[in-house]
Amino acid sequence: MTTPEQPETLLEFPCQYAVKAMGESSEDFDALVVEIVLRHVPALAENAVNTRQSSGGKYTSVTVTFEATSKAQLDAIYQDLTDEARVKYAL
Q1: Would the N or C end of the chain have less CB density within 10 A of its end CB?
Q2: Residues 78, 36: Cα–Cα separation, whole Å
């Protein structure tokens, strides 16, 4: 009995994709997240980065939106983000 091939992901590439990273607030946390994403994305649009502080100001979330080209690219971005000690969560 044969089974149909299961896709690796439900996403169809290329597509717009947003990665969010959260960590303790600092002057350069957003730059750190952008630098990690830029390792895998050739260029970002001018309005690609959105930064928000937590209500108490202790944490910062940085959302970077870009055109994803493959599951491997997304996996590499998430791996680099989670490998960075200053990034507490990556979604």
Answers
A1: N
A2: 9
